[in-house]
Structures are given as C-alpha cells and as structure tokens.
Amino acid sequence: MTKIDRIETSILEIPTIRGHVLSMATMRTQVIVLVSVRFSDGSVGIGEGTTIGGLSYCLESPESIQSAIETYIAPVLEGRDADDVNGAIYLMDKAVRGNAIAKAAVEIALWDGLGKRLDVSVATLFGGAVHKQLPVAWTLASGNSETDIEEAHQMLESRRHNIFKLKIGKHPVRDDVEHVRRIKEAVGDKASVRVDVNQAWTLTEARWGLAGLQDAGCELVEQPISVKDLSGMTELTQGYEIAVMADEVLNGPEDAFAVAAARAADVFAVKVAQSGGLKRANEVIGIGQSAGIGLYGGTMLESGLSTAAALQLFATVNTLEWGTELFGPLLLVDEILATPVGYSDFCVEVPTGAGLGVALDQDKVAYYRRDRSRSVSA
Ligand code: MUC
Ligand code: MG
C-alpha cells in the first residue's frame, strides 16, 4: 500500500502585472500557499491554496492556510493510504471545521498524486473531460475607466478575452454604473460585460445599481450584497432581468443548497478553493444543475497550479453557461509552472497528462518563496 509520508507547505509571493482594484482591497502581490504531498513510493502530489487580499476577502489568510495544514491536517493524514482520497476528505472534515482553502490545497495534491500513480488525468478520476478548452473572462480592475478600455481593446485585438468582469463597489453607485456604461459602449457587441461588487452594496444601493447596470447593457452582477443577506439576494434575483451570481456566499454544498432553496441566485460562481476542494465543488455543481442555476468556473486568482486543478474539474462539466474566469496566471508577473497553462482564441486550454497535467518550475518556486521554513517542494 502506498502511504502519505509527509505533507509540506511553502508560501510564495508573486507581484501582479498591475494593481488589481477590488471593493475591499487593492492587490499588488498574490500570496500562494503551495502544498507537496510526498508518498511512500516516491511519487509527489502538488496543490495550491490561495486567497485574495490577505484577510479582506474571506476568513482564511495565507498564514492560516499554512498553519491549518501543518498543525492540524498533516498529522491526521500522514501514514494513511495514499489512494484513499475520500477517506482523507472525511478525516479533514472531522479534524478541522471550516478552512475550506486549506483542505482544498491538500485534496488537490492527493488527486494529483493518485492521477500520476494511475497515469490518468484528474479529469479522468472525475469521469472524464468533455472539453479540451473553455471560454475565459478577464477582469478589468485597474481602477481607471480609460486604462480599462485600453486593456479591453488589447484583449479583443489579441483574441485573448471577449468576456469582461469589472470590479465595482468602491465608488458611489451612480459613478460605478457610469464606469460600466462607458466600458460597455467602448466594446459594443464585441464583448460581454459583467460586474463583481464583492458584497459592497447595501440592499438599497443594490436596487439602484441593478436597475442602472441592466440599462447600461451589463449582463450579470456578482455578489452585490453581503453574504449574510440571503433574502436580499432573493429579492434582487427575482426583481431584475440582469443575472445575479452568488460567489462569497457559496462555501460548499450546504451553502449551495441554501442559495438554491431560497432562489437567491441565477448563477453559481463555482470555486474549488471556496468549496473546500474538487469533490465538494463537484457537489456544488450538481446542486446548481439540479436547481436550474447557471454555472461559472470561478477563481481565487490562483497561479497555474490550482488553475489547472479547476480546469480538470470544469472540463468534466457538460455545460458551463457562463464560461470561466480562470485567468489567474495571467495576472501575475511570472509563471511558476514548467509549462504554462495555454490561452488562445478567447479560451483557456485544459492541461493534458497525468494528475493535474502540470509541473512546477523549481527555480521560480525558490525565487518567489517568502521563507524557507519546513519546505522542500516537489
Ligand atoms: C472574486 O470575487 O470573484 C475573481 C476574479 C477576480 O478578478 O477577482 C476574483 C475574486
Ligand atoms: Mg466574486
């Protein structure tokens, strides 16, 4: 029996190509928690747990992800059967409440290891890929309308993206709607425009906002109000034509069920990290499908590693009505994969090969490492 020998983590810091301005934080660096799971047969699985803006986006930080893994998850998994990924998931859930991103990072590494040992892709472990590539959105979030318009034109000309998500919620609603209107007018029918408010609006602001946004030709609004106001989300979903997407409120299948039961969204932003791993994200997908809720492949702005993990899962889903936003590696100044995830013709390519289908560039990993404690990566 192959066993889990040792679980190791390290934190990397990689600058972003420009300031990424969200309603709750401006990102200039992305902080990535890398996980290597070493198995007794010499094989290694790799995973990544990444959040956004320190502790400003959700309840986990890079430091809490690392400490949850090293202090509480590694001791219960080390020595166990490497192939028993479901057993590991149940044990992690028993030993650790919450901490979805930490669990996801370890679970991804376990699936990667299993896929490599069986010489099949992670998509195959989830029933098989039905897509080789998926549509991919780009987020315009420079904080300046002119710069965003220029960036949108570049993306259209290079055929990299024709779906744009605009980050709003930092400015008065009227100004934000005007910003969206200008960008939609500039791209016309060549691109679709969506927005993400990251919970910044009150319900009253959201009523004005949604009316203005749909008038401006914006097709979707993501998490306009607090995760705590599910009845407000229901009102907005039912009151306007513009699609309402649930993001931060979705932390696994139980939340997906609650949102679906309350008809509190038209679309799920399915995030592997936020869901607690690939298996739980797949359950979120199943709940969305059975409730008639549209699906969107979301990101925590991860590097190519967890982007590849998400691609392995989303490639198995017949219909992602709203495509994906798996552009994380493109927001970073540098790659940590030996062979980067491919982007062309408005799509992202699903990596092929065993496990996640990607390998780390160890020189880059060493270069971007925050410190060298307890860390020897795959
Ligand atoms: C979020 O809230 O969706 C995803 C894309 C992006 O630009 O930010 C993230 C976070
Ligand atoms: Mg979002």
What do you see in this structure?
It is a single chain. This protein is an alpha/beta fold and 378 residues long. Helix 5 (145-157) packs parallel to helix 6 (173-187) and helix 6 packs parallel to helix 7. The strands form three sheets. It has a seven-stranded parallel β-sheet with strand order 5-6-7-8-9-10-11. The chain has a three-stranded antiparallel β-sheet with strand order 1-2-3. A three-stranded antiparallel β-sheet has the order 4-13-12, with no helix packed on it. The chain folds into two domains: 4-120 and 359-368, Enolase-like, domain 1 (2-Layer Sandwich), CATH 3.30.390.10; 125-349, Enolase-like C-terminal domain (TIM Barrel, Alpha-Beta Barrel). The chain has helices at residues 62-77, 85-95, 100-118, 122-125, 145-157, 173-187, 203-215, 230-239, 253-261, 272-275, 278-291, 304-314, 328-331, 362-368, and strands at 4-21, 26-39, 44-50, 133-135, 138-140, 163-167, 192-196, 220-222, 243-246, 267-270, 294-297, 343-344, 347-349. Mean pLDDT is 97; it is low at 373-378. Helix 8 links the parallel strand 8 (220-222) and strand 9 (243-246). The protein binds [(2S)-5-oxo-2,5-dihydrofuran-2-yl]acetic acid and magnesium ion. Magnesium ion (MG) binds at residues 196, 198, 222-223, 247, 269. Magnesium ion (MG) is lined by residues 196, 198, 222-223, 247, 269. Pathway: Aromatic compound metabolism. The active site is at residues 167, 325. It comes from Donghicola tyrosinivorans. This is Muconate cycloisomerase. One of its GO terms (molecular function) is racemase and epimerase activity.
